[in-house]
Amino acid sequence: MPRNPLICVLLLAIPGAFGQSAQASQIIESKIETKLVPGPVEFNVLLPDGYESAKGPLPMLLFLHGGGGDRNFLQRLGPVIDDLWKAGTLPPMVIVTPSAARSFYMDYKDGSEKWESFIIGPFLEHLRRTYKITRERKGTLLFGISMGGLGGLRLAFKYPDRFEAVAALEPGIDPALKWKEVKPRNRFYRSDELIQTIFGKPFDAAYWEANNPASIVVARAEKIKKSRLSIYIDVGDEDAFNIHEGTEFLHRILWDNQIQHEYHLVRGADHVGRTIRPRTSEALEFLARVLNPPPPDPEAEATRKRLEPLKRAAERKQ
């Protein structure tokens, strides 16, 4: 069980939390009071098999739900996590999903709700006091889908000194650096009322830009690059919300700024449906590789060494 439970805790499942594996994982419902956002904020925590006997701090993954979702996103995708744990593909870690409504995980322009400040501040601190998780950047991870992908990327790009890695599936991002460049086809699913609630009424284009993941990359490219933040982005090429356009745009921004990342454009995949589970597994396996990097590849290293003189000669001719 968690240490120093300051808030109500309900044990939902132990053992075999999701009925599809023999792992003794535990999912806990909890909530926390805060003045930064409408509270209390409910959240779910998934503890791995062996959590009780774990001595050292475990990695922690913030598992962010999409628009219209809530903390039960963790329970719905729990079978994917349990299967990876059972296979030994994903290291033991504590995984947390807060209910964040349709907030974009942002501090609202009018100050009425401060989700970014809440997550980065009291929420993360509470988790570190209560559970056996790392207090360091190393091992502190982000995963998000749709709106959660947008929020995860923003948090990671703004605070690369606090997160080791981010994995974003079909992130709800726009293919633009300026709001005036965002076309109706890329924002049709968000009402003007929702946008103004978050970005101000009248709408504040500068505030949007300050919180737009692609714009943040351009503004903070060197900081992100030096941090060696591990980045994974994924989208289907038939995304019903046209989010593949924003994700491809971000890929190009990262590429042009020489920021290493892994990008998956999944043929035939949509925003929902049967591809979500395998794509989630691949994203989690990326995070597993961040925690436990594979050893050097001798064949690849030999090839690089062999090609280095040819590369230097080509550069001299430019």
Describe this structure in words.
The protein has 318 residues and is of the alpha/beta class. Helix 9 links the parallel strand 8 and strand 9. The relative contact order is 0.11. Helix 7 packs parallel to helix 9.
**Average pLDDT taken over every residue:** 93
> At CATH's second level, what is the architecture?
3-Layer(aba) Sandwich
Structural class: alpha/beta
CATH structural fold name:
Rossmann fold
* Count of all domains: 1
Q: In the CATH hierarchy, what is the superfamily?
A: Alpha/Beta hydrolase fold, catalytic domain
The biggest sheet amounts to: 9 strands, mixed
List the helices and strands in order.
EEEEHHEHEHEHHHHEHEHH
Shape: globular
Question: Could you name the key traits of this structure?
Answer:
9 strands; globular; nine-stranded mixed beta sheet; 318 residues; single chain; disordered N terminus; alpha/beta; Rossmann fold
Short summary of the structure?
This protein is of the alpha/beta class and 318 residues long. The chain is built from eleven helices and nine strands. The protein has a single domain, classed as Rossmann fold.
